[in-house]
Amino acid sequence: MSENIYVGVDLGGTTIKVGICNAEGKLLHTYEGPTGTADGVDTVIDNIEKYVRQIVEDSPYSWEQLAGVGAGLAGFTNIREGIIIHAPNIGFRDVPIRSILENRLNKPVKIDNDANVAALGEAWSGAGRGVENCVCYTLGTGVGGGIIINGSVYQGFAGLAGELGHISVVPDLEAIQCGCGKMGCLETVSSATGIIRMANDAVARGDRTSLSLVEKIAAKEVFDAAKAGDEVALRIVNRAAFYLGKSMAAVAAVLNPEVFIVGGGVSKAGDILFEEVRRVFAKLAPEPLQKGVTIVPAELGNDAGIIGAAGLLLRS
Known about the structure:
The protein is α/β, with parallel strands linked by helices. It has helices at residues 41-58, 97-105, 114-125, 187-190, 192-205, 219-227, 231-255, 271-284, 287-290, 304-311, and strands at residues 5-11, 15-21, 27-34, 66-73, 76-78, 83-87, 92-95, 109-113, 134-139, 143-149, 152-153, 259-263, 294-297.
């Protein structure tokens, strides 16, 4: 075998997942182990090195075929310098991870945040494969995002591009404060946290809804209730979808992507979410900016991070 391989690292607070990809973005092998956060920064770095070496050793590929390693994580990163500025879930602050790993592995290393690598993974071999320009939303506890332009991650001058959850879309009279400190961010209404908040508010107001019978409301219960015809739940889902579609109309006016990819736990709601998002986008985006544009669910699930991290070596 003479083909190059690329290893992606998904660095989480509990688990480190690693995967080998080929140059076409096909995931060939995976491996995972504990992060070791409680034992400190040095242990976490030791584990990254160990798992990267282990996955190559366990594969039919040689160390010489490894062209490089990419890593994605949740946190603030200086992408150009390869420094993790602050990643609370792994206890890193001002850690020059790229240079450390390059010295240990003697291979090129690149890093990026988790939303960017997930977007790159979907663009490379998921819902956006074959597309040069796409935007990826990740709807989970918050709203993350990644922008792919001409096949590569667009990072902006400070590496902070793609903060889609902090587009201000909610009018002042309806807006609440976001965790970022500003008012009316998309994240306050279209994340799982926002959907749960709206559901709890409805129950607290005494709205007639089956959600009042749920001991601890999760976003899934809201979507299930909406699908069953609960008017309050449907109103919440439509509100989350409206502002998501509104944000896409704004993004389309700036970037004109060919595909909007929506991933994360909230995206599993399916048609009840996507149909309304598409309707709102069609209503709010100028017609020329809609032509040929699709809004689709993500395909790679939990593998998007390791595939996208591996892709940093080729497409960033």
